[in-house]
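Input record (one chain):
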Amino acid sequence: MFEVLEELIKTVRERKNASADKSYTKKLLEDKNLCREKVMEEIQELTEAIDNQKNQIHEAADVFYHLLTLLEANGVKAEDVMKELKKRQGVSGLVEKASRQK
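The corresponding structure, as predicted from the sequence alone:
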């Protein structure tokens, strides 16, 4: 199942070499402000979809795509995010958050 996520990451990275005229992803990768705005817009749409119990899956997929694109546009590798999540496994969220406040 997570192969789809890996393929999406690969596709976003490949789009760095595409033409912005033909690739929406390339356009987002080149315009970090637009990319950030799209993430915020898609998160808003997801929360509305959840509230309305309508189109949640579609909107969640949009958030995944736009978030991965934003990360890539800013040099943040999804693999590094996964490593961070792995480090947090088995640690209470409250404990983890408290450790960052020191």
